[in-house]
Amino acid sequence: MEFLENQKNQKSQKEQVKTSKIRFLCFIGAVILLLSGCSIWIGITPEQTYSAEERRMLAERPKLTKKSVLRGKFQQKYEKYLGEQFPGRTKLVTLRTKLSRLLGERDANGVYFGKDDYLLERYQMQDFDWKQVKKNVKQTAAFLKSNPDAKALFVPTKSSVLSEKLPLYAQNQGEEPFFELLGKMAPSEQLSHAADALKEHEAEEIYYRTDHHWTTLGAYYAYEAWAKEMGFTPVPKEQFTVTPVCSTFFGTTYAKVRTGGRADTIALYEPKDGPQFALDYNMGEFQSDSFYDLSKAEGDDPYSVFFGGNQALVDIKTQGQKGKTLLIIKDSFGNCFAPFAAAHYARTIVVDLRYVNLPVSKLMRVYPADDILILYNTAQFMDDKDISKLK
How far apart are CA 78 and CA 83, in angstroms? Predict the structure, then answer.
């Protein structure tokens, strides 16, 4: 009897092992079919190059070369490409984030769920390519030294300025390593301290809750401090008409998690008795008498209401005013700053190096400037590979 019982147990164990193997093989087969199906789907559908929700370019299909495969770069790039082209990606991101929050996690996909409905980007200084960072700082410092009338204004990240909004125990290294490097390499008298004004007004809505940009109010406080540094009398805040143009704005930070936050309001600050402007976009592409494209307020990217989005070059002339020319070299943070600064100059040239295929020195032969302002968000500047044109 004992012998028969042992045989039954052995047979049962073998059946369990066999069943487990079948289940495992079925699971592996399902994963392979899923990945194969997704790869086929990605291969036959048009490649998405831009995400309107995240306001950024998506990863392109990497080139397959022997060198890239041996170094592992192709595998890394292709993994990122698959992740960004994955069918139903937006819904999967939403599901993943909600599950993370149910499990009590304080962040998801590089975003902290902060106090007062703020979504704050999680930046780690070691995640940046410091070879690129040093290259950018060195290039900027050299440009400043060659142009004594130039100033650089670097806008800190929301997570840095509004650190009190971060959840308890959130890792927040700050941007001190970047500013220390900048302070060592660039002339201190040419570094604007306008961004310090943001910390003084941290209790106000100077950054969007769901987007990485500063609000128009935040840009105003930086303008106010910069104008004083330049010897101008800034236009008082009370002399602006504040017009909300979108009260349902969910920005780039929200797009990374698809949950949390609270809708932001985009507002325009227009001087009540200000001058008239004539704007020429992209060397004659089109003209306007406004800094704003109100049609964008109801579109996929309401932040594009400023200048109608990022433009390569905008030539702004102040009607009836004679005097100096200002050159602003900027990223997207400069879009809501430029209207404030333009009021103090007869002409303002606004350039985004990401869309211009010329070095700044050649541009300045066509558009000579008396004053120059380099305006970038710190995180975007550290990643930007177009700073090499700043020569």
Answer: 8
Q: In a 10 Å sphere around its CB, with 0-12 CB exposed, 13-18 middle and 19+ buried, how is residue 286 labelled?
A: exposed
Helix (H) or strand (E) holding 351: strand 347-351
> Residue 241: enclosing H or E segment and its boundaries?
strand 240-249
pLDDT tens, position by position, 336-390? 999 999 999 999 999 999 999 999 999 999 999 999 999 999 999 999 999 999 9
Query: What is the C-alpha separation between 251 and 209, in angstroms, rounded?
Result: 8
Single-letter amino acid code for the residue at 45: T
Q: At 179, which helix (H) or strand (E)?
A: helix 176-185
Distance (Å, whole) CA 391 – CA 287? 29
What's the maximum distance between 2 C-alpha atoms anywhere in the chain?
110
DSSP bridge partners of 108? 111
Tens-place pLDDT, residues 59-88 = 666 776 766 666 666 666 655 665 555 555
203 three-state secondary structure: coil
Q: Which pLDDT belongs to residue 105?
A: 63
Give the span between the Cα atoms of 183 and 176, in whole angstroms: 10
Asked if residues 314 and 280 have their Cβ atoms less than 8 Å apart, the reply is: yes
| Cβ atoms < 10 Å from Cβ of 11 | 10
Of 276, 370, 368, the C-alpha closest to 321 is 276
- Rg (C-alpha) for the chain, rounded Å, is 26
105-119: burial string, b at 16+ Cβ within 10 Å, e else: ebbbeebbbbeeebb
Q: How far apart are CA 353 and CA 328, in angstroms?
A: 11
Contact 221, 181 (CB under 8 A): no
**pTM (global) more than 0.85:** no
